[in-house]
Design a protein that fits this description.
Structural class: alpha/beta
Strand content: 25-35%
Radius of gyration: 17 Å
Number of strands: 10
Helix content: 10-25%
Length: about 160
C-alpha cells in the first residue's frame, strides 16, 4: 500500500499545540514541518506516541551558509503516513539530542551525520566515526571543509 503524507487536519492540530512553535507551508502538498521552538525530544515523543510515527526512516542534514538543518523522515506504519521534520542548528554549535531512546534504528544515521557533517547528537551512546578513519580531521561534507591532495582534510575557521 502506498504511503500518504500526514493530513492537513493533523498538521493543524500539531500546529495548535501551545508547547511548540512549528511552521509548514500550506501551499505544498507534502509540507515539511519545521520545529522553531519547543523541546525537540518532547516534540518527537509526541509524534511517536500520539500520532503513531513508529519508524524513523531517514536522518540527513543540510549545510547552509549561516546554519545547519537536520531533516527527519518519520513513518506511521499502521496508518501508512509519513512526515518530514526539520530542525535548524546554530553553525557554531551544531548539536541536537539523540533520538536513540525513541528509535534505536537511528544509530548509524546519527553517526553518519556526525562523521560527515560534524553534528553532535547529545546522548548518543556510541557517537564516533562510521565512514571516515578515526584519525581523520574535519567533516568532508561541510561547506567549510577543504580537502588536500593526499586525501586528508581540514576545517576552515
Amino acid at each position: 500500500m502506498k504511503r500518504s503524507y500526514l493530513s492537513r487536519d493533523k498538521l493543524v492540530e500539531i500546529e495548535n499545540n501551545p508547547l511548540y512553535d512549528i511552521d509548514f507551508d500550506e501551499q505544498l502538498s507534502k509540507p515539511p514541518v519545521t520545529l522553531k521552538k519547543g523541546g525537540f525530544l518532547s516534540f518527537m515523543k509526541l509524534l511517536k506516541n500520539e500520532y503513531g510515527f513508529d519508524m524513523l526512516s531517514n536522518v540527513t542534514s543540510v549545510d547552509y551558509v549561516d546554519h545547519f538543518e537536520v531533516v527527519y523522515d518519520l513513518v506511521n506504519r499502521s496508518e501508512y503516513e509519513e512526515l518530514m521534520i526539520k530542525v535548524f542548528l546554530k553553525r557554531e554549535t551544531p548539536e541536537i539530542p539523540s533520538l536513540m531512546p525513541l528509535w534505536p534504528e537511528v544509530d548509524f544515521q546519527e553517526r553518519e551525520q556526525y562523521d560527515l557533517m560534524g553534528i553532535k547528537f547529545i546522548g548518543h551512546p556510541d557517537l564516533r566515526r562510521i565512514l571516515m578513519p578515526d584519525n581523520y580531521e574535519g567533516h568532508p561534507l561541510r561547506k567549510d571543509f577543504k580537502a588536500n591532495f593526499d586525501g586528508s582534510g581540514e576545517q576552515s575557521d
